[in-house]
Predict the structure.
Amino acid sequence: MAEALRAHPDVFVTQPKEPHYFALGGRPATFTGPGDDTTINRVAITDVDQYLALYPEAGNYLALGEGSVSTLYYPEHSIPAIRAMNPEMRIVIMLRDPVNRAFSSFQYLSVRGFEPLPDFLAAVEDEPRRRELGWHHLWHYTSMSHYAADVEQFRTAFGDQVGVWFHDDLDSDPTGTIEAIQRFVGVDPSRSASSDVQRVNASGQPRVPALQAAMQWGGRHAGLRGVVKRVVPFGVRERIRSANLAPNATTSDVRAQLRPTFAKDLLRLEEVLGRSVPASWSV
């Protein structure tokens, strides 16, 4: 979604896409999970001047923003920070099937060599310990998939400035969904060269483990990582990485075990949104 918005000539999206400022602004990123020092602790921007420096000083952009998923997850910090920065901000929330979102995070961290456990359900069982130890939000597999309270707080704080879409909409009608989001943030969809949605931050099983291992090694060496980022555009890097990943969905057994974890939250989410969540989320 963020990359499709970035492609619109009237929209500016920061690089990095997830600076985590609103969730962490003013507080240092000191997470303790495997790899947190080389990922979120390194890239998170918590200083207001450094955050504002991500945006251009000039230009004809009508909408400028970023795409930190942590903004929704830490409403107690992000809502006051948004009010201080821009109380009229438009906030786009894209929600995914809770089990698929949790499993995707597990695969994302596994394929990067950070997840210490090979079994998803074992990692879920270990989640309370990880949270207690201060591992960052991406490790909170089931907690990040409980949406109702966070969405309700944003709706209460910002009302109609909050737009909520389902990832299923993006899958079934990518063009229509992106155009609706473009209109919501205040730009004309007809000015967009394309409404194609490029798949980024993909998860799955490596097709060529040696290639994945090489990318992991390069990602842990700051000098090489910087050179690659300067020479190889983000879109090209993502196409290479995604091409090496074979999609790997959750099994029916995993869904059956985790479904009760989210049942009450989904009912509350429907009350907050005033509409039903996709039927497949309960299957």
Notes: Residues 2-198+261-282 form a domain with the Rossmann fold fold (CATH 3.40.50.300). Residues 25 and 46 are 4 Å apart (CA to CA). The chain is about 50% helix and 5% strand. The first helix runs from residue 2 to 6.
